[in-house]
Amino acid sequence: MTEILNVGILALVITLFGLSLGFGLLRIQER
Fold first, then answer.
1. Alpha-carbon distances, residue 29 vs 2, 5, 15, 21 (angstroms)
2. Does residue 13 register a pLDDT over 90?
3. Which Pfam family is one of this chain's hits (predicted)?
4. How far apart are the first and last CA of the chain?
5. What percent of the chain has pLDDT over 90?
6. DSSP the chain
7. Cα(4)–Cα(8) distance, rounded to whole angstroms?
8. How far apart are CA 6 and CA 13, in angstroms?
9. pTM of this structure
């Protein structure tokens, strides 16, 4: 149960980081 929770949190963090990184790259390209 704890392992599944840890994997879920890790996946969520990676997803959020990827989205923020992609959003940052898009904003840089707009300039």
1. 41, 36, 21, 12
2. yes
3. PetM
4. 46
5. 87
6. -HHHHHHHHHHHHHHHHHHHHHHHHHHHHH-
7. 6
8. 11
9. 0.63
| Residue recorded with tokens 């707009």 | 30
- State the virtual CA torsion across 3, 6, 10, 11 in degrees, nearest 10: 60
What confidence tier does 31 reach under pLDDT thresholds 50, 70, 90? confident
What tokens were used for 31?
A: 């300039």
| Per-residue pLDDT at 28 | 92
b/e code 1-31 from CB counts within 10 Å (16+ = b): eeeeeeeeeeeeeeeeeeeeeeeeeeeeeee
